[in-house]
Design a protein that fits this description.
The protein contains 9 helices and 9 strands. It is α+β, with helices and mostly antiparallel strands and 258 residues long. The chain folds into 2 domains: 168 residues, no CATH class; 69 residues, no CATH class. The strands form 2 sheets. It has a 7-stranded antiparallel β-sheet. The protein has a two-stranded antiparallel sheet with strand order 4-6.
Length: 258
């Protein structure tokens, strides 16, 4: 593949933006994945095109699909959201093999929506259509020092949480659970996001630094890594750049041409 390959994003209101592929091994591998998917419909859940605010209705539908009894989730606090996330984890392997299983991923997105209440970027993914294009790769090594408006990036895509997210969600203070749920970025998915605004990674909260000190060495050894900086929490690997300076706020992705 030629370095600095061009690509184009078309939005549904007629706006189209030209991009230049970033000069990195990761970006070139990503472009190869996307070439196979550019004519395939994107997944509405992974691309945040569905309403996931009704977590109670989504959870009840999930329980019917999974064949399990629902628990009482009110009041919907961090503890209950963590329970719902763990339910998703426990049933993922079984339900991901079934047909018409979109409710599994809808529940996952709804839990994170209620934990964060923010969707800052234009997210694009192909879900199950991605198939064998998912692979393990050290995306962790390609993180940028900041996020630039309108540039394209590779999102963290693990079945778990980042260390900061684990701490903020008040997950158990337990090394075994932390090792299982907290993940560095090693799952290489055929998806991307377009940044709506610049972002400079903020220093870690000192309360998190103090908490993390008790768990990080065991986690590093478990994951085979030797550091976890604020860029890994707040930034992403760069995929493509653009000279377009207008705001993309509110625009809806329609197509990628590569």
């Amino acid at each position: 593949m030629k370095k600095n390959k061009s690509l184009k994003i078309i939005f549904d209101n007629g706006v189209d933006v030209d991009y230049r592929l970033h000069d990195s091994e990761l970006a070139e591998k990503w472009a190869t994945k996307i070439k196979h998917l550019q004519h395939v419909p994107i997944d509405p859940i992974e691309s945040y095109k569905v309403d996931v605010s009704d977590i109670r209705g989504i959870y009840n539908e999930f329980c019917k699909f999974a064949g399990i009894e629902p628990i009482e989730i009110d009041p919907l606090d961090r503890f209950k959201l963590n329970q719902l996330h763990q339910t998703y984890e426990e049933h993922h392997a079984r339900l991901s093999r079934l047909k018409d299983n979109s409710i599994l991923y809808k529940l996952h997105l709804s839990v994170h929506f209620h934990q964060d209440k923010t969707i800052e970027n234009i997210n694009v993914g192909w879900g199950k259509h991605e198939g064998p294009l998912t692979n393990q790769y050290s995306c962790y090594d390609f993180y940028e020092d900041g996020i630039i408006q309108n540039y394209m990036y590779l999102p963290w895509s693990e079945l778990g949480k980042t260390p900061m997210k684990y701490w903020k969600d008040e997950e158990p203070n337990d090394q075994s659970r932390f090792n299982k749920l907290a993940k560095p970025h090693t799952t290489f998915r055929a998806k991307f996001f377009i940044a709506i605004k610049d972002k400079t990674p903020q220093p870690f909260d000192q309360a998190f630094v103090k908490w993390f000190a008790d768990y990080k060495q065991g986690w590093f050894e478990h994951c085979g890594i030797d550091k976890w900086d604020n860029v890994h929490e707040y930034c992403s690997p760069l995929l493509a750049t653009t000279e377009y300076k207008g705001s993309l706020q509110g625009l809806k992705f329609k197509k990628i041409i590569i």
